[in-house]
Amino acid sequence: MRPLRSTALALGFVCFFSLSALSQTYTPKQIRFEGATGMDTNDLLGIADVKPGTPITKEQIEAALQRLGDSGMFSDLGYTVGSDALVFKLVLSPAAQSLTVRYANFVWWQPSELTPLIQSRVPLYQGRLPLAGHLTEQVEAALVAMLKEKGVDAAVTIVEASGGHSVALEISRPAIVLGNINVQGSLPTVATLLAQMQAGFAGQDFDLQLTAKAIPINVTDLYNNAGYLDTITDPATFAAPRKDLDRYAVDATTTVHPGELYRIHQLNFDAPPTLSRADLEKAVALKPGDPAGIFPLQHAADSLAHAYTLHGYLDATARHEYPKNSATHTVDANFTVTQGELYHLSNVDASALSPALQATIAHDPKLAPGVPADQTATSEVAHILNDAHLLNSVRFTLRPDKTNHTASIVLTTHAAK
Q1: How do residues 242-261 score in pLDDT, each as one tens digit?
Q2: Beta carbons of 174 and 154 less than 8 angstroms apart
Q3: For the residues of 29-91, what is the DSSP string, one character each?
């Protein structure tokens, strides 16, 4: 950092600081920080280690300024002394904005323990850091030393959190990963799904805050998707880290409270008559008595919309509601379809095919411009390609024009860019 400088002192104190006797003191009624927009004054007082109403010498003021400089948060510093206030003039470095610190994966301590432990080694630290600077380096070094005392040869880095409102200190080496997840209170009916979830989580990077949220959310979602719509999952707790080859694994425990299984009472459709009731039921692939899982209900709505697109209604959408009856543990599965406009075929681009196949497509009445852009048209293209033994080497896509409610079928070879 650049050498510290002091600005000209107010008239009443020019002579004061020219005295050589260190016993001369000044008692500021106020201490202000100019230029530190958005920063907490108490944090700055803590870094500077000064208090209003307390006698202070010139040397102590300059030492306070040095401590502020050592924080790495400022590109320029100075001070003025007046009869009413000691004013520190600070220029905040754009690259060194002080942000709240979060401890990502220091699994040997509780987060609340870490700030005072670091402060005992780095007194200037107040729980906030820039992404770079001398203070940040000191805090990283302090954490490395603390881990060394635990027998862990580690590297510590600081990263900006999503949104840019905080930073995270994390152990970047060795890897800290999630180990086993013990879900107490689980039901045999979801054992297979739960085992898949547990296997998917095992070995992922561990983050105390993010992992603690992710585990109960995912367990609850798993049970909701199985039809247990009143599920509550307790916050996850974590065991002490265990050495696992060249990394450390942290085992987790949570308890799930599934409640009762909800089933579908009836299916209700508010849909255009393009599809019959039987077609609608076939599309959703659900029936009364089935478990009322959230994902199966959403998938049913998506499948219902897709059934309409196969009939040429390419903008079709479907939404669903499932009001719960907590007394009977049932839901009514209500589906509403918005059909939209019928799309018509504008052309078939077969320029990637041989002239003979282009001619076949051009003279096919099922692919003539103006026919509905529906499953009949796409099936006809597939039939032609299959007869030519090209079904596995030529792909075709339906490209809608939403302005004119038309669509073209474009055929490309797999080698085409």
Answers
A1: 999 999 999 999 999 999 99
A2: yes
A3: SEEEEES-TT--HHHHHHHHT--TTS-B-HHHHHHHHHHHHHTT-EEEEEEEE-SSEEEEEEE
Report whether 140 contacts 156 (CB < 8 A).
Answer: yes
Q: What share of the chain is helix, strand, coil (3-state, %, to 5)?
A: 35, 30, 40
For residue 35, the one-letter residue type is G
Looking at residue 190, what DSSP letter applies?
Answer: G
Residue 115 contacts residue 109 (beta carbons within 8 Å) = no
Give the residue with greater pLDDT, 131 vs 292.
292
| Residues above pLDDT 70, as percent of the chain | 92
Length of the chain: 417
Q: How far apart are the first and last CA of the chain?
A: 54
Among 10-19, 125-134, 195-204, 261-270, the range scoring the smallest mean pLDDT is 10-19
Could you give the domains of the chain? 11-94 (3.10.20.310), 98-173 (3.10.20), 176-257 (3.10.20.310), 263-338 (3.10.20.310), 344-413 (3.10.20)
Which two structure tokens, joined as six digits, stand for 330? 């049932």
Q: Which residues pair with 248 in a beta bridge?
A: 176, 243
State the Cα–Cα distance between residues 134 and 124, nearest whole angstrom.
11
In 66-215, beta strands by DSSP E = 74-81, 85-92, 99-103, 128-129, 155-160, 166-173, 176-184
Q: Per-residue pLDDT for 8 more than 90?
A: no
Task: Give the Å distances, CA to CA, from 268 to 197, 264, 271, 295.
Answer: 33, 11, 9, 18
Contact 318, 304 (CB under 8 A): yes
The CA distances from residue 190 to 187, 265, 363, 405, in Å, are: 6, 22, 55, 45
Reported confidence tier of residue 135, pLDDT bands at 50, 70, 90: confident
